Fold this sequence. Notes:
This protein has 156 residues and is mainly β. The protein contains 1 helix and 11 strands. It has one helix spanning 2-20, and strands at residues 23-30, 36-44, 57-58, 63-70, 77-80, 87-92, 100-107, 112-117, 124-128, 135-143, 148-155. The strands form 3 sheets. Strands 1-2-4-3 form a 4-stranded antiparallel sheet, with no helix packed on it. Strands 8-7-10-11 form a 4-stranded antiparallel sheet, with no helix packed on it. The longest helix has 19 residues, at 2-20.
Amino acid sequence: MKNLKVILIFVVAFCSYYSSSAQEQLVFAYDAAGNQISRQWICVNCTAQQPGADKLEKLDNSLMVKQVDSIPMKSTLIAFPNPVNEMLRVEWTTINGIFVKNLEVFSLNGTKVFGSSVSSKETSSAISFADLPPGGYILRAFYTDGKQQVLKLIKE
C-alpha cells in the first residue's frame, strides 16, 4: 500500500510538471495545389530560460514560433483531369528563372510512354492518353536547376 502511494505521488508530480512546461505543436502551411510550403514548431508558454528558446521568435506574450524547415517557392506542377480519359493537361508556374525543361510519363512497370522537351517560354502542355491502356502512370518533370517533380496519374 505504501508503494502504491509513492507511485501515485510520483505520477501526479510528473503530470503536473509536464502540463506546466512548454508545449510544442508542429504546424504546416500549404499552397493552393496542396503542396507543403513550410513547417514550423509553435511553442506555447515558452520562456527564454528553456532550452532552444534562443532560436524562437517572440510573437506575443504566450506564443513563440521557430522556423524549422522552409521549402522555397519554385515551379508548381499541376496535372488535370486526374483520372484522365484522353487528354491530360499539365500546367506549371516559373519562379526565379527555374522552369520545366522535360516532361516524361511512365507506366507503373517502368516503360516510358511519353517524353517531350519544353521551351522556357511554355507554361503548359497537353499529353494524349487516348492510345494508352487503363492503369496507373507517373508524370515526371525535370527542372533547369536539376530537380525533379513527380505526380501520380490514373488512366480510366
